[in-house]
Amino acid sequence: MSLFSPTTVGAVDVRNRVSLAPMTRLRASADGVPGHLIATYYAQRAGIGLLVTEGVFPSAESKAYPGQPGIVTDAQAAGWAKVADAVHAEGGAVFMQLMNGGRVSHTGITGTDRIVAPSAIAIEGETRLADGSKVAFPVPHALETAELATVRDEFVAAARRAVDAGIDGVELHSANGYLLHEFLSPASNQRTDGYGGSPEARARFVIEVAQAVAAEIGAGRVGIRISPAHNIQDVWEKDDAETRATYEALIAGLAPLGLAYLSVLHHDPASELIQDLRRAFGGTFIVNTGFSRVTTRDEAVQAIDDGIADLVAVGRPAIANPDLVTRWQRGADENEVDQASVYGPDERGYTDYPFLQD
């Protein structure tokens, strides 16, 4: 087994053990439809074993950013069908990350009359609207117990639309401070019903979403991403017994489902906590060190050689190098990412990075 050897991720065969980390790119139309640029971007990177898309909103209320693509309408699904076709034409495999932004949004972005969260606790700071203006994050609506089924079913419907459009599977975004992650942390979840107050209760909604999505499209087409103690967007989790108990409860609920994979964002994937969670999960395990530093070729190779993970998710190097796996196999130089254009509206810093010349 090596970084460049093929493997199986749930129901999907992949050509190597590199994964494209899900990264916000914001190139969809104003109505959330992914166009030709998005299809080209993912198809260019189809040499990466498992592509995971940017976060895609499963309902209008869950949209987090201007320019973010959705999987709610027929037009959005048709756009994703073209993405799937383009990736498959290049021999690639692609999972769609389903992301309810939760309180990381504003009604000026969603076009709805509210944003939602586990509890009515706002994030400190500001977000940016489509016109470039900055506004403070509002206090979110605390989802009532009876409303949780609606949010769960939005994930289920989105997963069905994605798979029907030809996408190979979905990843549930339970990391980085968005809605599912908000349920896991006592900083953002101060509920007093059966979905808050203890590690098991905080993990309950995430487990229920995973169960429902797996029942709809098959567990082998469902992955999940978590970020224990990553501390971003005011979802604070200490590296302590409380956090361990929460994620152990989560994995205990997920492990029997036979999901395609568990993807973990953590600054030290070899740590005792992360490897304990891996063993408890018992399935395909993907690691990513996150935003603090760039994953290098040697680090990715070592992670597989040392048995730390089954796949390694790579972010910025995969933005700048559409042929990243080829470059890593040949030991070739890499393009550097143009950070200023990461969230731009066009091909600059997106589909215009050069390939290796033979």
Describe the protein's architecture and organization.
By secondary structure, the chain is of the alpha/beta class. Helix content is 32%, strand content 15%. It contains 11 helices and 14 strands. The protein has an 8-stranded parallel beta barrel, surrounded by 5 helices. The chain has a two-stranded antiparallel sheet with strand order 1-2. A two-stranded parallel ribbon has the order 6-9. Helix 7 links the parallel strand 11 and strand 12. Helix 1 packs parallel to helix 2. The longest helix has 19 residues. The two termini are 27 Å apart.
Summarize this entry quickly.
It is built from 11 helices and 14 strands.
Task: Indicate the radius of gyration in whole angstroms.
Answer: 19 Å
* Tally of helical segments: 11
Which strand order does the major sheet show?
3-4-5-10-11-12-13-14
**What is the averaged pLDDT score?**
96
SSE arrangement, N to C: EEEHEHEHEEEEHEHHEHEHEHEHH
Number of strands: 14
Q: Which descriptor suits the 3D outline?
A: globular
Distance between the first and last residues' Cα: 27 Å
Low-confidence stretches: none
Q: Bin the strand percentage.
A: 15-25%
- DSSP helix fraction: 25-40%
Which structural class is indicated by helix and strand composition? alpha/beta
Give the biggest beta sheet: 8 strands, parallel, barrel
How would you summarize the topology of this molecule?
Blueprint: E1 7-9, E2 12-14, E3 18-20, H1 36-44, E4 50-56, H2 74-89, E5 94-98, H3 107-110, E6 116-117, E7 126-128, E8 134-136, E9 141-142, H4 148-164, E10 169-174, H5 179-184, H6 199-217, E11 222-226, H7 241-254, E12 261-265, H8 272-281, E13 285-288, H9 297-305, E14 311-314, H10 316-320, H11 324-330
Parallel strand pairs: 3-4, 3-14, 4-5, 5-10, 6-9, 10-11, 11-12, 12-13, 13-14
Antiparallel strand pairs: 1-2, 7-8
